[in-house]
Write a structure and sequence with these properties.
Elements: E1 2-4, E2 7-9, E3 15-19, E4 24-28, H1 47-68, H2 73-77, H3 98-108, H4 114-132, H5 136-140, H6 150-154, H7 167-175, H8 184-189, E5 192-193, E6 203-205, E7 212-214, H9 216-222, E8 228-231, H10 232-237, E9 246-248
Helix pairs in contact: 3-4
Length: about 260
């Protein structure tokens, strides 16, 4: 149950889980069922996967710890919208919420254009909010493409997989764990979420907070898996991803395929 100021959100909707060892049916709300992640290191991890797994797990653990120490829901998670103006903030002030700073940091190391960075920030921000504090409110705000698949709920996997923004690719990493040793970083580096430059309304001002957020139109566009692509050369590096994500042609990758042990 979410505690949001004076309002409490109760469970709506449920999923039935059968446990053959106890022979009981247990009904729990959908929002309570988190992905089944590994408790230890991933035996299939390459250097990038291992680093991302530690990064996600460390942040998730630290935010939950702040909650356990008595911080409020709003203090720990911030608002439901990421402050997109923080992407270019260089004024040296401490205005950026830790949730926003975390998702910005995830985009800075890769060769994304600014629109794709904004989209990834939005999708990962919503996912992290739910995983830190799973309740009806954070579940309702979680885009459909980020909600865990049945594979994510049933097969142990590293936590970074849950933040990959294409469901079929997440399932591939889980049911074909050897792919986690390959050059998936190259494909991730080429992800692009387009936005027609002639389309107005990419961002808007939030009248209640004064921050800049993505508009409803752009959020809906970014949450459509059909608008997420990778380059054809990235698929050449990682052919296992073919057919699981839309490809685009005519682009040259900024780097050669990464070679992982």
């Amino acid at each position: 149950m979410c505690q949001t100021g004076r309002k409490q959100e109760r469970a709506v909707g449920s999923r039935v889980i059968f446990n053959p060892q106890t022979i009981h049916d247990v009904t729990v709300p959908d929002f309570c069922i988190l992905p089944l992640t590994l408790r230890g290191p991933d035996p299939f991890a390459n250097e990038f996967g291992g680093a991302y797994d530690r990064l996600y797990r460390s942040f998730l653990t630290s935010r939950r710890e702040v909650l356990r120490n008595g911080a409020s829901f709003e203090e720990v998670l911030g608002g439901p919208h990421v402050d997109v103006s923080a992407l270019d903030r260089r004024d040296g002030t401490d205005k950026t919420h830790p949730m926003t700073e975390f998702v910005i940091g995830l985009t800075r190391s890769l060769h994304y254009d600014n629109v794709t960075k904004l989209a990834l920030m939005h999708l990962r921000h919503r996912m992290m909010r739910w995983m830190i504090y799973p309740c009806q409110e954070t579940w309702n705000q979680l885009p459909a493409i980020m909600r865990p698949t049945s594979t994510q709920l049933q097969i142990p996997h590293p936590i970074w997989v849950d933040f990959f923004i294409v469901p079929r690719v997440r399932d591939m990493f889980i049911v074909q764990p050897d792919t986690r040793r390959l050059e998936w970083y190259t494909a991730a580096d080429s992800i692009k979420i387009s936005w027609d430059p002639g389309e107005k309304g990419l961002m808007e001002a939030d009248s209640s907070t004064g921050m800049t957020r993505l508009s409803q139109a752009s959020r809906s566009h970014f949450e459509n898996v059909e608008n997420i692509t990778v380059s054809e050369t990235a698929i050449t590096c990682f052919p296992q991803m073919r057919g699981k994500i839309t490809t685009r042609s005519g682009e040259v990758m900024p780097k050669m395929c990464y070679k992982s042990s």
